[in-house]
Amino acid sequence: MPNPLSYLTDQLENWRQAGTYQRLRVLESACLPVANFDGREVIHLASNNYLGLADHPKLVEAECEAARKYGAGSGAVRTISGTMSLHMELERRIAAFKNVEACVVFQSGFAANAGTVAAILTPEDHIISDELNHASIIDGCRLSKAKIHVFRHRDAAHAEEKLAALADTPGRKLLITDGVFSMDGDIGALPQLTELAERYGAIMMVDDAHASGVLGRNGRGTVDHFNLHGRVHIQVGTLSKAVGVLGGYVCGSRDLIEFLYHRARPFLFSTSHPPAVAAACIAAFEILEKEPERIEKLWSNTRFFQKGLHENGLSTGASETPITPIMVGEAAMAHAFSRALFEEGVYATGIGYPTVPQGKARIRTIVTAAHTEDVLSRAIEIIARVAKRMGIVAHMAAN
Questions:
Q1: Which of 226, 255, 290 represents a domain boundary (last residue)?
Q2: Distance spanning both ends of the chain, measured CA to CA
């Protein structure tokens, strides 16, 4: 009998032939600067663990204590019986940290973005979105069934054209951007977009997943970085990157959060975080408040690493943050580069189309506060040597 899913097998084989097939690498240690993957020790440049909190003793102890006291799981969604005191404490802690009225925690940053956009808009409304916004924003826009208007990346003038054209059109307008763009590491045009939102009466929303714990005082994000407190209506953040644990959150007015409690589908239909996760997140925010030197070290390591790459003729594109792409060009070459680096002792992920545009494939690297300069120097040497051997340095120079 024919297999109705055989077309999937064909597609997998096409990816193998094109050199873009990727298998999952298996982490066999804690998420450390030098970690064990697939039975070998490698320099780990492929995580979002910006501040090195994923294995911090205070987070681990908070998890253990919460599990002993409250058990392994909550047993229900938040709106039935799954709201625990730890969840409410975490939301209060984040709201105070972000200087907003209220906060709601979601099971992931993806759910926070997609669930929020889909909840607050209708098919009669309009979304004005940066062309490189995260996939979770794009999916939320589609789920909302609102009309989508895309502006050129970080181009506030183009965003204004879109808003001006909608000025007399019925429906709400949502202007949305990433705070830090996850593939290029550049910072969104939030100050200019916020001014436009005010001028045209639009809702201003920022996804600060890669800015949380990285930009602003103690890692408060792009709103704090640009001193836009009280002017951005919806802030999305993550608990899965710099915070080192799991989840996402939305910050804003009390009414916004109450509305999401009632209408955000991922919140309504997903079991709440295990108590251990909530407790570890609370411990992480305590560290953010008390140890700003971790963020200083993150940026020091970033400058050191990027300088070393540049000195070896490698392009890091438009990066302004610890997200450091090494531009390659073609997807097959990026994946081959990634595999060769792994064999030499560096784990950095190859990324190509459709995650990034055709011809703009890259290796994406992220240093953390936990890396030492000795380890980063070793990584730079390996990356430069493999890039030269594969002709990547010469290719980038020609382009």
A1: 290
A2: 51
| pTM exceeds 0.90, yes or no | yes
Say which residue the tokens 């951005």 belong to. 232
Which tens digits make up the pLDDT trace of 74-91? 999 999 999 999 999 999
Residue 324 belongs to what domain range?
A: 18-47+292-398
Does an H or E element contain 143, and which? helix 135-144
Dihedral of CA atoms 279, 285, 286, 291 in degrees, nearest 10, equals 140
Give the CATH number for residue 166. 3.40.640.10
Q: What's the total number of domains in the chain?
A: 2
Residue of 134, 153, 162, 210 marked active site: 210
From 182, 240, 272, 315, the catalytic residue = 182
Q: Do residue 214 and residue 317 come from a single domain?
A: no
Residue 8 in any domain: the answer is: no
Q: Which of 153, 162, 241, 360 is catalytic?
A: 241
Q: Are residues 130 and 256 in the same domain?
A: yes
pLDDT tens track for 315-340: 999 999 999 999 999 999 999 999 99
- Predicted pLDDT of residue 395: 53
Q: Is 210 a catalytic residue?
A: yes
